[in-house]
Amino acid sequence: MLEDPDSFKAIKSHLSSKTLQDIEGLDPSLYGFGREECCGSIPESLPNSMKMDKEHVMLASTMPFTQWSKLTDNVPHYTELHRSLQKDSPRASLTVCETNDDECVLRFRTNPNTGCFEITQYSISDPVSTPWTEKGTLQVDRTDECFIFVCSHLSRDKRCGYCGAVLVDLLRQAVLRKMGEDGAKRVSVLPCAHIGGHIYAGNVILYRKSGGVAFGLFKPSDVDTLVDAVASGTDEIPESLRPRIRGQLYSNIPVTKESNQKCAIM
Prior knowledge:
Elements: H1 8-11, H2 17-22, H3 28-31, H4 36-39, E1 55-61, H5 78-88, E2 93-98, E3 104-110, E4 117-122, E5 139-141, E6 146-151, H6 158-186, E7 187-192, E8 204-208, E9 211-215, H7 223-232, E10 245-250, H8 257-262
Parallel strand pairs: 1-2, 6-7
Antiparallel strand pairs: 1-3, 3-4, 4-5, 6-8, 8-9, 9-10
């Protein structure tokens, strides 16, 4: 009998010591990829179970995801930024992610004027406020890059804590292995806070120039498939991943050489 490629036994040797420490004490049969909803047929409730917001803001923090509180209100700057966004961008959703780089704010949105999907990084102002409303805020266009967020919110649900930690590790390894160091600079894999539907852990969101797509019940055996698609530059979702699409958000402008020029952030 073939070994389950998603079992803890199969993936353990591929995980870093940090990841093994992060998931220590979490029973894989209860919280991992061997739990009932992962092993059986895809739940009928999974497709289109997530409405992807036209504006998604990520607060990139250096606080480790294992230390986030249930509501992430212990993460520096979160409460102030949340309050400011409610006033300035009430339709935007705010999520925390962990970064090893400088803390910043990442904004993913469809520009209402151009129809183009934009990814912009902003510095965090002092005092904290909505960065795109403040003069002097540094901003960087990162639309040509790719971001993969994995729900790893341990304090919200142990399934996310286990699956998220494992997937972040394996995705980062695959990006480096398949795309090299230059590729790894263009593809960021980051653990993030709760993005809905614990039963569907691992929850993965992919953002790039063409828009965003969210997957549920993502497994270690899916890692190479997704990274190969990202590396190829195609906007096509691999067939094996399509049944687990929880939501999609596309640019209103097809990604072409002409639209690249039209959609450039000035």
